# Entry
Amino acid sequence: MTGQSGFDDLIDALRGTFVGSEGELVEVKTLRLADAERRRLAGGDPDEGLALVVPGGVLLDELLPGVPVSAAVGVLSRGEGVLMFATDPVSERHRALVEGAGLVTGPVAGLVRELHAEASVLDLLHSVGRELTAQLDVDRLVQKATDAATKATGAEFGAFFYNLVDELGESYTLYTISGVPREAFSRFPMPRNTAVFGPTFDGVGTVRSPDITQDPRFGRNAPYHGMPEDHLPVRSYLAVPVISPTTEEVLGGFFFGHPQADRFTARHEFLAESLARYAAIALDNARLYERERIFATELSRSMLPVVPDVSGADVVTRYLPATTGSKVGGDWFDVIPLSSGSTAFVIGDVVGHGVTAATIMGQIRTAIRSYALLELAPSEVLRNVSQLAAGLFDASFVTCFYAVHDPGRRNLTYANAGHLPAVLIAPHGEVQQIGEALAQPLGVGSEFPQRMTAFPPGVDLVLYTDGLVESRTRDLTVGIEWLLEGITRVREAPDREAAWDELISELTLGRHDDDIALIHVHRHLDPPAAEFHRRADATVDELAGLRSGLTQWAAGLGMTVERSEDLVLASYEALSNSVEHAYRDDPRPGAVEVHGERHRGQVTVTVTDYGTWKVRDATDTLRGRGLSLIGVLADHTTTIHRDNGTTVILTWTVDDTTEDSATG
Amino acid sequence: MFETPDSKIQEPSGDDGGAADGVTLEKRDEALVLRVTGALDLSLAPKLRQFVDRAQRLAPSVLVIDLSEVSFLASAGMAELVRAHRSTPSIAVRVVATGRVTVRPLQLTRLTDELVIAPTLSAALAPA
# Structure
């Protein structure tokens, strides 16, 4: 217990009463008293208030056995007790002074007690107010306010009803209870705008009644005409509206009750109103804050990319805005298909939070996309974006890991601007962190060295932001260790999406204070289907389906986007010829077959029909374009006119290293 | 002065699942614009021919065939571009082509030598 000023002052004053026969001060010793001793000394409740007691000889012997005490006086206060005594001779004057002091202390004790109570309430008001206004979690805020107000008013119980508006704009009412278990109220409906409650919910003003059951407003409303049966008995009643200082709308109301009449004073009313004002500010803040959080979350979500299919790989991505706190909005990921056939994987984190971070993130993301589409090398992408960021945003910095996977060369080129390292898992399972501490963040650094590593089929790459591994209760390196262990399990899991959800909730204990962004790329071990075969009626209507099938197949061949487009167009032209010319004289169209295969670095598409190609109409110079187009699109073309039809063979040479089957 | 283009004709795109293939006709001052969407292939080429014929009957000074939204260009479609260009010498035909998907086949078949190709619709509409 900390010293109370009245208590300490009294002890100081009493020190001056221990005087010798010449009026000189005598040495005073003090003995702190334990609870039982205080009780003995007081001869009853030692916490009644400030008191002076001159102990008798028997008690003194108990408290100070064997000490030749010349004079002693005990000082008691709430929770404290000190025995002051001297062993040197003390004059009679001491006794007179102590008696005098005792006479005064009696009435003073009561006064001091009141002042103490007052001071502690003001203390409470102040500290609760400070805590409330710093509180952004609505549930905790209102509970704290209700507890504090109930205590301050000396009510038997208190309740706080408050209105919230959900995402759909619907208003709803919640409440907190203090002093009694929540169940005491859970059976009753929400209080309505009755004659008693109306002034509070309408924000008219405070209602204080010494005995609400005698109030003319009481009992006027159906169905209860008073209090519901089993309601806690209330006679003293105090209710204070909570009104927003900014919008002046009524946010809710505090209600206090006591089963005895006449318990609430003007002073209680003042305290409750003060707390209501603090609560209003706090609720306003919390609502603004919640709005900002929702806005930042929406902003970040709306900027999430549509993850394209990456040929030959499974990609799992996650963006989880912070569930608590104000840290929403700075993280992002991106998966960008490049026209060379490569894919860029980007993960980043804007330092800072909220709407500002989210908008900076959006700009940085777009900048990275733009430079990525120019097919700049990773170090160049980051260098350009860093320059841009340094000019655009004051004192912001952004971490970013940028990696480009080239399926043709089977490698991964990456640069890292101050971001956490990425995790690379070799096909045989060896886990490795790559790109650690390569360069400074964007907006700070100017050089972003890049590295290259093999990226064969069966390899895994994981990019993530710190929200996944960092927590208030755990060191970053421990978090990364847990992640590395977990990744191995995710990699083996039949359903990687579900496995990630599990791992994320394990790592964050279901409550992440920061955004989380994540990309997991798994390159298929199985080579993409090397063969394609379709047989269809040689009609215009079938062509679209055949073209679509070829497009999908070609995408998995490891050719550049341009080459696979050529393949599809050339094949389409050959198919068109069959559709248009092969069965011109037949009442019903025959079949056309298309067969594609990849073998030893060569892709071959064969189109076969079973009709007779009419000799081209000499006047139709326009239609000859199809054949000449085929000629320039394919690396090599052969047309075989058989007795029963025509076969066109188109071939393309592809980079031999792209043939996954070599190792798969 | 011109009749209002009556409808947006849309051909089922079959497999693409995205924007439907089709041709629309609209008037821009003294010019007519044919916007082609989706795959300009053997299926859509007859529709384009029909629209070109209709546009030419209206005798605009400029006919723009806008391929900005074309995702696939086959020789059947290119044949219609050439036909439009050659059939009525009094009408200037301009083709809007930007992406590789349309520009490359036009280049490979050297149609870029013959057709007037513009990178944007506004460039195509600008006075020659």
